[in-house]
């Protein structure tokens, strides 16, 4: 059995055990440590502070972090591996989701609907009663594509120049499917909607998120005149997400 090391995460108060040599990028992303440059060691967005344990200083650390920061234990998480038992100070990602009770004009119909905002950073899914327009459940999460870059340009770079478009499409479709399933389980557990069916869904997002979800090639958006060359209309069955 491969040797294990223990990683304590503060201020979360969580302790996880992983195989020795595991990239910290794989470990920390689920705990909301973002990697703005896609883990390329080009920014300081993923820095964490080593409180206990030995983490060698890398070339990328020396370029981006001051001597004072290095002496205080700051390191770039994207360049770290779990080689020793560690205690790390990490900054938690926090999501602020705007909700309101604004009345909307709509045509009532039977069943439930789901609205998904596919944001570059955050994905939000809302389940609504289509007969009343009431929001029955909300689920939000960090867009798991952010592991490969937190902004539009790094996401395009990963898709076009690193050949990851199919992976990014798979990631976002699976995540949205899981999010809808989770919020639907909560809604279906209530007495009033135990037998209600999800009959309609709509997704919104910026052009890049739209293309990545639909599987439309991003190359035309990566160079002038930055326009898509394919039709953008797509129809999906429920089992495709």
Written account of the structure:
This protein is an alpha+beta fold. It has two domains: about 5-90, Beta-grasp domain (Ubiquitin-like (UB roll), Roll); about 110-240, Domain of unknown function (DUF4445) (Nucleotidyltransferase, domain 5), CATH 3.30.420.480. Helices cover about 25% and strands about 25% of the residues. The protein has six helices and eleven strands. The strands form three sheets. Strands 2-1-7-4-5 form a five-stranded mixed beta sheet. Helix 4 (about 150-160) packs across helix 5. The protein is globular and about 65 Å long. It starts with a strand and ends in a 27-residue tail after the last helix.
Strand order of the largest sheet: 2-1-7-4-5
How would you characterize the largest beta sheet? 5 strands, mixed
Looking at CATH, the homologous superfamily of the largest domain is: Domain of unknown function (DUF4445)
Report the average pLDDT across residues: 84
Strand content: 25-35%
Quickly count the domains: 2
The number of distinct helices, counting runs of at least 4 residues, comes to: 6
Order of helices and strands: EEEHEHHEEEEEEHHEH
The helix content is 10-25%
CATH-derived topology of the largest domain: Nucleotidyltransferase, domain 5
> Helices and strands: which structural class?
alpha+beta
- Ranges with pLDDT <50 over ≥5 residues? 92-96
Alpha carbon gyration radius:
21 Å
Q: Any idea what the CATH architecture of the largest domain is? A: 2-Layer Sandwich
Q: What is the total tally of β strands?
A: 11
Shape: globular
- CATH class membership of the largest domain: Alpha Beta
Distance between the termini: 36 Å
């Amino acid at each position: 059995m491969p040797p294990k090391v223990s990683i304590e995460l503060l201020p979360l108060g969580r302790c996880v055990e992983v195989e020795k040599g595991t990239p910290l990028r794989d470990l920390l992303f689920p705990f909301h440590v973002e990697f703005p440059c896609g883990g390329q060691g080009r920014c300081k967005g993923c820095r964490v502070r080593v409180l206990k344990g030995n983490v060698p200083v890398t070339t990328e650390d020396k370029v981006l972090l001051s001597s004072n920061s290095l002496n205080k234990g700051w390191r770039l998480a994207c360049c770290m591996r779990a080689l020793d038992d560690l205690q790390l100070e990490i900054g938690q990602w926090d999501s602020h989701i705007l909700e309101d009770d604004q009345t909307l004009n709509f045509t009532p119909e039977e069943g439930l609907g789901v609205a998904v905002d596919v944001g570059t950073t955050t994905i939000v899914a809302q389940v609504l009663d289509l007969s009343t327009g009431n929001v029955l459940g909300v689920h939000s999460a960090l867009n798991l594509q952010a592991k490969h870059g937190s902004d539009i340009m790094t996401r395009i770079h990963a898709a076009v120049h690193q050949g990851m478009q199919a992976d990014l499409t798979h990631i976002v479709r699976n995540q949205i499917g899981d999010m809808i399933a989770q919020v639907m389980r909560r809604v279906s557990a209530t007495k009033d909607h135990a037998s209600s069916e999800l009959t309609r869904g709509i997704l919104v997002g910026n052009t890049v998120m739209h293309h990545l979800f639909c599987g439309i090639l991003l190359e035309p958006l990566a160079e002038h005149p930055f326009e898509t060359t394919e039709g953008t209309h797509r129809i999906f069955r429920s089992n495709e997400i």
